[in-house]
């Protein structure tokens, strides 16, 4: 039996809780702390789990603690939980965006810690999560962490934590890139005369279908692209226009910018006071 406590009961915690219960974990083995009474009541009603207003009550006797809070909430969380975590020394899983392992160790103590970067499709069980661990995490604890995050979709371990900013730029921020592309496709089709509702439906379904083909076929995206592209056809005309406008360079610059910003945000946390 593994007892899991979630600190923070927002959308990401909710998706993980639902996924874990679907795997057979008992509601009695999950606790959540959440400051908003309405959110606490909804979690308790929907999942039959114990909810608390105070973090220290939720984490008591927990084997695994999932920090499902925003980075700016860390000063308050660490002040409340540091001693409780040192007494029991649970596995700590952080999904606080951009917070480094060394920062978590400094604020919360030298614990086994797994840092995760999920993305918003985790809310529908279709997420992509990068994970990295400090050297205090045992193989069994790594398996525990992966089981928890598998409840939200695909997981991949990252050996070098420095690459977590790239994971953030790729999959963490990535859904927004696809939403932006669908917006652009929709607008372009409307400009060509299609009704907006039809353009949106066709663009969104095309994005879904292409993603499923890529995942389910397991084939190289370049090969799938080639199969759609007839010589001198409509697809080739569009792809040549993309190339002329520098799509690969635009994408590389965008991912590099997001990676840099992730590093900057983590560095900014070092300058904030922590009790």
Descriptive overview:
By secondary structure, the chain is an alpha/beta fold. Helices cover 56% and strands 13% of the residues. The chain contains twelve helices and eight strands. The protein has helices at 11-22, 37-47, 55-59, 74-88, 101-108, 139-150, 164-172, 174-191, 196-217, 221-228, 234-244, 247-270; strands spanning 4-7, 30-33, 50-52, 64-67, 91-94, 113-117, 127-133, 153-157. An eight-stranded mixed sheet has the order 3-2-1-4-5-6-7-8, with helices on both faces. α7 packs across α12 and α8 packs across α9. The model has no long low-confidence stretch (mean pLDDT 92).
Set out the fold topology.
Blueprint: E1 4-7, H1 11-22, E2 30-33, H2 37-47, E3 50-52, H3 55-59, E4 64-67, H4 74-88, E5 91-94, H5 101-108, E6 113-117, E7 127-133, H6 139-150, E8 153-157, H7 164-172, H8 174-191, H9 196-217, H10 221-228, H11 234-244, H12 247-270
Helix pairs in contact: 7-12, 8-9
The DSSP helix count reads 12
Strand content: 5-15%
Evaluate the radius of gyration: 21 Å
Strand order of the largest sheet: 3-2-1-4-5-6-7-8
N-to-C series of helices and strands: EHEHEHEHEHEEHEHHHHHH
Spans of at least 5 consecutive residues with low confidence: none
Protein structure class: alpha/beta
Helix content: 55-70%
Shape descriptor: elongated
Mean pLDDT: 92
Distance between the terminal alpha carbons, to the nearest Å?
34 Å
For the largest beta-sheet, the strand count, sense and barrel status come to: 8 strands, mixed
Find the count of extended strands (DSSP E, 2+ residues).
8
């Amino acid at each position: 039996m593994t007892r899991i406590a979630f600190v923070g009961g927002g959308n990401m915690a909710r998706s993980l809780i639902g996924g874990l219960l679907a795997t057979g974990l008992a509601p009695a083995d999950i606790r959540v702390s959440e400051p908003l009474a309405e959110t606490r009541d909804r979690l308790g009603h929907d999942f039959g789990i114990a909810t608390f207003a105070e973090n220290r009550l939720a984490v008591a006797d927990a084997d695994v603690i999932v920090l499902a809070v925003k980075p700016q909430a860390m000063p308050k969380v660490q002040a409340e939980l540091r001693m409780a975590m040192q007494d029991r020394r649970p596995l700590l899983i952080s999904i606080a965006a951009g917070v480094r392992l060394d920062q978590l160790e400094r604020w919360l103590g030298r614990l086994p810690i797994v840092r995760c970067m999920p993305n918003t499709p985790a809310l529908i069980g279709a997420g992509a999560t990068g994970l990295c661990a400090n050297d205090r995490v045992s193989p069994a604890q790594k398996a525990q962490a992966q089981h928890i995050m598998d409840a939200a979709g695909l997981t991949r371990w990252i050996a070098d934590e420095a690459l977590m900013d790239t994971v953030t730029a790729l999959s963490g921020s990535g859904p927004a890139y696809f939403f932006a592309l669908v917006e652009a496709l929709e607008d372009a089709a409307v400009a060509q005369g299609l009704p907006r509702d039809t353009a949106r439906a066709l663009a969104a379904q095309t994005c879904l279908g292409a993603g499923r083909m890529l995942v389910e076929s397991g084939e190289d995206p370049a090969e799938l692209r080639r199969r759609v592209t007839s010589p001198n056809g409509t697809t080739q005309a569009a792809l040549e226009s993309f190339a002329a406008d520098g799509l690969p360079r635009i994408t590389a610059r965008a991912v590099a910018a997001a990676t840099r910003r992730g590093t900057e945000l983590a560095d900014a946390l070092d300058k904030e006071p922590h009790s």
